[in-house]
Amino acid sequence: MAIAKRDGSKYWYIQFQYNGKTYIKSSKTSDKPLAEQLESNWRKQLIEQQQLGFKAQLETVKAFQMFANSKKQLTSNKYITLACNRAAEFWSGVQFIHQIATRDIEHWRLELQNRGYANQSIKHMLNQVSGTIKYVKRMGYQTADIEMPKIKLSKGRLRYLTDDEEQRLLLAIDPKRDVKWMAPYEERREFLKAQMQDFYDLVVVLLDTGARHGEICTLQWSAINLTNRTIALWRPKVRNESVLYMTDRVFDILSRRSVNPLNQFVFNDKKGLARNNVNLTFKKAFERAGITGCTAHTLRHTHATRLIQNGLNLYEVKEILGHADIETTMRYAHIEQAQVSLKARDVINKLNSSQRATVQQ
In whole angstroms, what is the distance from residue 217 CA to residue 202 CA? Predict the structure, then answer.
């Protein structure tokens, strides 16, 4: 008999040996015939996996939990977890992840659309479903062969700061600026001075490195080399590392902050943990500067645009931004094309001037 009762437990326990290994677990039922059926199913599943090459099944809810947990190191983990929880809730009636087919994902897309989600949000939610299925497949579990729906996103205008807008932004967040209802700079409390300086430093570092907001928020002093003026920037989104050379502004900021580092992070919150990704602070800063249509990510676009406008090509910018593939960098292609057009104009003007000079001679 492969099932037995244990002292103090109302449930039947399953226990048997297979290929020299002992398998044991609770059936979680006091119904003996049901426990015997569960034992038979478990033994059959092991035979299918080990002898016939069948892959193990994974519960749908557990699959989404495993994927979300695998992304704990990302600053966007709470959004990934939220998307996974909503997907798991939608498919709560589907026992195993491999039972989710292409048509089911299309039903989820339509459901999100009916709930009023924008296409960008729907794309994000579907990316977590696709990521979950790919992840559990790598882990050796059964998955269905699915096709993800294509979500069209409006490209819109690539927003970046002009030189004038950058100066206005820096003036609007100057830690020594006069602020209504606030004491003059010299009379302000030290924690307030530090808070205002912290945000100013963060913005300049984002402008001059082109790093993602979350990458700088989690930047640690161990990645800073002031002697070589380099930053070993780990990019959790694409799981690669870039070595960035500091601009003079960034070097000055990091040198000043390194004199009395509070903890392992270059930028931290009140508890000494990595600084939170708070968009509201940026929104207010842009409003004070009279700048519209911008977020923290605009600083990254600004950096990339400046590089292209001053001679770097798309492949070079790809390396600086830490993109996993050139397709992502291609959003700046029109800026590169404009710069090429300017160069072409200058070449033709030079040739025309040379021809006129020859004719006049």
Answer: 8
